[in-house]
Design goal:
By secondary structure, the protein is of the alpha/beta class. It is built from 8 helices and 15 strands. It is 27% helix and 24% strand. A 7-stranded parallel β-sheet has the order 5-9-4-1-2-3-10, with helices on both faces. A 5-stranded parallel β-sheet has the order 12-11-13-14-15. The longest helix has 16 residues.
Length: 331
């Protein structure tokens, strides 16, 4: 691959101003790619409003330098303003590779930047590596049933968006990056759309994209009223509630709880799958979890192939007993 060998990696702030979980994964893959390119620098770009302190903490997870696009104009990561920040950062950092989180926002602004620069873009990647000097990105196709490898020709920069849960999360304190405010001149065209307010989806105690524990239910619950056992276990853990597409399509649960290929992608420390068979479309949305506990009466259910721990039995007996044990342990 021609160019500087440097990597520009983007981090995003969540609603509370702290780095989203995927932002830590982005630093892991950025360090890997920079090493494979011959040891180029890793420049981080952190975009948001009121996020300067969080940017410094995030950057210490692997960046040599952090550019901070901080201002009310970047609140909510509107595609036009985020694209303006990323375009400016690329001009500043001169990267060979640009890595963007595969979040809802990242999937919007990354193609805008790629089109402006005439750069190649691989979307929704689960693996990114350098082979014989060329960037090779792997991404799922056909609803997750197959993987395709995309090899970029020479030249740059090249871009990729990375799916959450694909890499280990970096830890702060690895590096001591130089932090610089990025001067981005937003035009009236960039600011045609602005964020007025946000309204959280659902009323759960934890948001799916930031929860340390997620408890999800599937068709094995048999009817919507039985989802109460999932909610009770989630309450005991202080966890978020998730669901499969089948139960969402049946109207049992709201769409914002759907996990999988056509729903949310989560990577909590613990994922509890209750009555979920483990169709590939669901698994791609949670297989990046640190630990997966599967509860299903079918010993041949595909979910057990990726589970860290499996319990074969009647969920209506197992889950209430588990809920009781969790409450007892916490008390």
């Amino acid at each position: 691959m021609q160019g500087s060998g440097n990597v520009l990696v983007v981090g995003e702030a969540g609603p509370d101003g702290s780095p989203r979980p995927i932002s830590w994964e982005m630093l892991t893959v950025a360090r890997q790619v920079a090493s494979e390119l011959g040891g180029g620098n890793v420049t981080g770009l952190f975009i948001g409003a009121g996020i300067a302190d969080a940017a410094r903490t995030w950057g210490s997870g692997g960046a040599d330098r952090v550019l901070v696009a901080d201002g009310e104009g970047f609140a909510g990561l509107m595609p036009s303003t985020a694209a303006a920040a990323l375009t400016r950062a690329i001009a500043e950092a001169d990267p060979s590779v640009v890595l963007v989180p595969g979040t809802t926002a990242g999937r919007d602004y990354a193609p805008l930047v790629a089109a402006r620069l005439g750069a190649g873009l691989a979307a929704d990647c689960v693996s990114v590596a350098v082979e014989d000097g060329a960037l090779v990105a792997t991404r799922p196709v056909l609803g997750g049933r197959a993987l395709t490898r995309i090899r970029f020709p020479g030249g740059g920069p090249v871009m990729a968006t990375v799916r959450s849960g694909s890499f280990a999360k970096a830890e702060p304190g690895l590096t001591e990056p130089v932090v610089e405010m990025l001067d981005v001149a937003l035009t009236p065209e960039d600011q045609r759309v602005s964020l007025m307010e946000t309204t959280p989806k659902g009323t759960g105690t934890s948001r799916l994209d930031s929860a340390e524990v997620v408890v999800s239910g599937g068709r094995g619950l048999k009817e919507p009223a039985h989802f109460a056992v999932v909610e009770e276990l989630a309450e005991a853990f202080g966890a978020a509630v998730g669901a499969t597409r089948a139960v969402v399509d049946a109207g049992w649960r709201p769409h914002h709880e759907q996990i999988g290929q056509t729903g949310r992608t989560v990577s909590p420390r613990l994922y509890v799958a209750v009555g979920i068979s483990g169709a590939v479309q669901h698994n791609v949305g949670m297989q990046g979890s640190d630990y997966i506990v599967a509860i299903n009466r079918d010993p041949d259910a595909p979910i057990f192939k990726i589970a860290s721990f499996g319990i074969v039995g009647d969920l209506f007996e197992i889950v209430p007993a588990l809920t009781t044990e969790v409450r007892n342990a916490k008390s």
